[in-house]
Inverse folding.
């Protein structure tokens, strides 16, 4: 569906240039929103229709809307990057579109085509392109974070898939997800909570998974940690992922491992990109089960030299320590995380157009 099939509803009065520039100079994460949003409606009878871009603002939802009661909702996270020549690009959007359809199937929501997914990003950016920040230097990871989401909007309290659904994209200028930038973060290992179980929704990007992580995230914050790590729900032994990011382990012999994908792990686009970039850097990527004992022992005996988290929002962020009620797992030597930094620079160089896009990962918005 080309962009011009999105109708533009009366313009929002755009944010004044001086106010927008002020926000872009220090946007934080997820606090400010652009002037417009994209919207497509779905009904059981008519399918997807009513593609439009409208002023950003509150949604009108019936209090009986299914999403408010049964959490029939999915979302995505993807960024728009400004290159040195002013052009705006996004990264592997077809991967997000594909994952959005996988999530939709699991949550019994209608599937959205690549054309509508990517078309909606383009249509929104056609209005809100001044909101894409310009990086100050090569370490600056500022971008416009795009948040497509789909909700069950039918007012009906019976438990069945909604016959009415709304898809939106909103956009928010973003700096580093973690306040400390690429300073290593402390991760909390929760003993009580599980994020996902086999057969459940762990692989889907649905609000419910994030809601299920919040009590553990609260525990993490209370213990001075920026994120929470989850073990598997069956054996309480295998490392799964963080509340909203995948994990990687770097070994001194050049291997780089991440938990293999199961139906309890979210397939990160950054995770997949790191596996490819690592191969190009002469590292040996491995996707396999990794136990908490392996982390504990590898950290102590120096086999594991780096641990890092990755995701669209967090890019690549080193993990300094894993903390639990019982212990504090720290790497034997602090080597300054050279592999995490190298992969991060590779990824950012590609995303910001400073390196040749040999993988064909960029799409112009
Ligand atoms: C993303 O990385 O895009 C996410 O959705 C994770 C969330 C913690 C912001």
């Amino acid at each position: 569906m080309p962009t011009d099939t999105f109708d533009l509803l009366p313009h929002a009065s755009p944010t004044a240039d001086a106010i927008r520039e002020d926000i872009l100079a220090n946007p934080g994460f997820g606090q400010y929103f652009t002037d417009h949003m994209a919207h497509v409606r779905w009904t059981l009878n008519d399918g997807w229709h009513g593609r439009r871009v409208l002023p950003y603002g509150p949604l009108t939802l019936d209090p009986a809307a299914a999403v408010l009661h049964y959490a029939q909702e999915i979302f995505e996270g993807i960024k728009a990057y400004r290159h040195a020549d002013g052009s705006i690009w996004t990264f592997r959007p077809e991967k997000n579109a594909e994952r959005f359809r996988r999530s939709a199937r699991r949550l019994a929501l209608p599937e959205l085509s690549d054309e509508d997914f990517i078309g909606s990003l383009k249509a929104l950016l056609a209005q809100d392109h001044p909101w894409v920040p310009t990086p100050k230097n090569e370490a600056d990871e500022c971008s416009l974070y795009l948040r497509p989401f789909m909700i069950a909007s039918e007012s009906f309290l019976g438990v069945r898939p909604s016959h009415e659904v709304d898809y939106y994209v909103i956009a928010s200028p973003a700096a580093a997800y973690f306040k400390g930038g690429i300073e290593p973060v402390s991760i909390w290992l929760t003993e009580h909570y599980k994020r996902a179980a086999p057969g459940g929704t762990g692989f889907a990007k649905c609000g419910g998974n994030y809601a299920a992580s919040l009590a553990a995230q609260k525990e993490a914050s209370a213990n001075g940690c920026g994120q929470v790590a989850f073990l598997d729900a069956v054996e309480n032994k295998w490392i799964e992922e963080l509340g909203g990011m995948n994990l990687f382990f770097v070994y001194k012999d050049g291997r780089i491992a991440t938990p293999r994908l199961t139906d309890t792990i979210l397939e990160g686009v950054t995770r997949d990109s790191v596996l490819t970039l690592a191969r190009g850097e002469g590292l040996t990527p491995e996707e396999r089960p990794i136990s908490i004992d392996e982390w504990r022992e590898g950290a102590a005996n120096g086999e594991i030299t780096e641990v890092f988290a990755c995701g669209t929002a967090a890019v690549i962020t080193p993990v300094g320590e894993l903390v639990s009620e019982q212990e504090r797992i720290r790497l034997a030597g602090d080597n300054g995380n050279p592999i995490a930094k190298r992969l991060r620079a590779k990824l950012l160089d590609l995303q910001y157009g400073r390196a040749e896009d040999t993988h064909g990962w960029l799409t112009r918005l």
Notes: The longest strand covers residues 164-174. The helical segments are 17-25, 66-70, 93-106, 114-128, 207-222, 269-280, 292-301, 338-351. The CA atoms of residues 4 and 123 lie 7 Å apart.
